[in-house]
């Protein structure tokens, strides 16, 4: 990308959740549901000394993408690291469930989920886990009718139970700054030690969980620049492709076969992972 392009582009990763949703929807079609003025804040955070947020860190927006009905679920990474609790999780699951109902009634509503999350909110524990399970079920229901597109742009990434939600999406879009993994770097270091995973070694972390690696291993579908226009165009194109013949989560046997021959006692390298997942490779 040349210098002029860099100066003219708008970083998607630097936008807040509400601005990201507006950037994807057709101009003038943005309508927020269950927004901050509805005061759907978590009832649990204040009891634990945490200041709640009026929208619980989740923006639900209805509108149109390329003229077609769409719902955007955007997670605010700046609030509690994008962690999901009872209220925010219910907003996402409920919106996806209503989109599926729309399709059963003949209204072809598609969905995009903008991931910026560390997973479940520890202060809400099982309530958050139950909400994330509802999100998983709602994605699987909706994707029978219309594509569900996930976007991971940075800066928090996508971890924990929401990484499973990303894996369930019909299509997944990542940037160079994106990270995707079941456990976050700090959690791995805490449990396995710094010799196993140094959470301060940024090049090492991105080499395993960054956008380039996830594309190379087939765990994401599109790799784009951190540019609002580019991401919007990519989401539009993927929605226009329709529901894939087989979702990535339906190819679990393929991935299990790839991993079956690998010795977990060996310290993996990024190149090892790419070789395992490469088409036609022997595990």
TrEMBL record:
Pfam families: Carboxyl_trans (PF01039). GO terms for molecular function: lyase activity. PROSITE patterns: COA_CT_NTER. It is an enzyme of class 4 (lyase). Its EC number is 4.1.1.88. Keywords: Lyase, Transferase. Gene3D superfamilies: 2-enoyl-CoA Hydratase, Chain A, domain 1. Residues 1-247 form the CoA carboxyltransferase N-terminal domain. InterPro entries: AcCoA_carboxyl_beta (IPR034733), ClpP/crotonase-like_dom_sf (IPR029045), COA_CT_N (IPR011762), Malonate_beta (IPR017556). This is Biotin-independent malonate decarboxylase subunit beta. It comes from Cupriavidus basilensis.
